[in-house]
Amino acid sequence: MTDPWGISGPDFVVLYIALLGAVLLIRVVVSGVVSSRALRADAVTPGPPPTVYQLAFLAGGPDRAVDAAIAALVERGQLRVNSYKQVSQAGTRPAEPLEQAIFDSAQLKTTATLRAYGRRSAAMRALEEGLDQRGLLTSAAAKRQARTFGLLLQLAVLALGVVRLVNGISLGRPVGILVFLVIVAAVLAIVAAVRRSKTGARQPSAAGHRLLGQARAAASGPVPAGMLAGGVLLGGAAAAVALGGWGMYPDEELSAALAPPMTYGGGSSGSSGSSCSSGSSCSSSSCSSGSSCGSSCGGGGGCGG
Question: By C-alpha distance, which of 35, 31, 94, 38 is closest to 68?
C-alpha cells in the first residue's frame, strides 16, 4: 500500500512534531531579536523635559502614571481618601489632562478602579504617543510584525496537519495521534493570535532607560524639592511615586490606603502624629465629610487633603 505523499504515518508524526517545535523556537528567537533591536533603538527626537507622568510611564507603565497623578491630587487636597480606601473629589478640578481624567473618575473609587479608567483615557493615549514620538518607547509595530510572522507560521503548520488528517481519514488510515497533534497546533495558533492582538505594555527604549536612570540619580541627589535636575522637576509625592511606586509615598498610612493589595512595599512614614495610626485610623465620616484628621493623615493635611 502506497504511503500518502510518500511519507509513512509514523514518519509524518515525527516530522510534524519537529515542525511544531521548530515554529515555537522560531517565534521565540524572532521575538527576542525584535525586542532587542527595539530596545537598542536610539533615534531620539529632541523635546521639552519629560513630565513626572511621562517618567512614571517609563518606570511602571500606565498604572504607575495613574498612581503618580493620584498622589499629586491627594497631596494638593484635590482628592480625599476615606477609611474604606476609596478616593473622592475634594477640591477644584486640575488643569493637567491626566489629572483631569483621574479627578473626573474619582467618585468613591479605589486606586485599582482608577487605574482602569486611566488606562483607557485619552490623556493616557496622548502621553504614550508623546513618548513614542520621541523614541523613548520600544516599537509596537515591530513587535506586532514579529507576532504576525509567528502566527502565519503557526497557521501554516496547522493547515498542513489538517490536510494530512483529511487525507488519512479518506484513505482509512489510523489518525488518532495526528488528531491530537492537530488539536495542539490549533491551540498554539489561537495563543499566537491572542498574543498578536495584545502587544502588552510598552517598554522603555534604550533612550528611555537612560532618561529614567538620569531622573532617578537626580532625585536621589542633594537637590532641593522643586528644583530642576537633569531636566526633571523633583520633589513632592508625585515624583516619589512616579519613580518608586506607592512604597515611596511620604506617608505610610496613605501609602497603605492608596496602594492596591500586594503592590506596595511599606515606604517611610511622613507622619508626626498618631491620629491616623493603625490603632486610631480616620473614620469614614470624618474623612468623607471634609473635616481634618490632623496633619499626620496626609501630605497636605487632613486625610489626604
Answer: 94
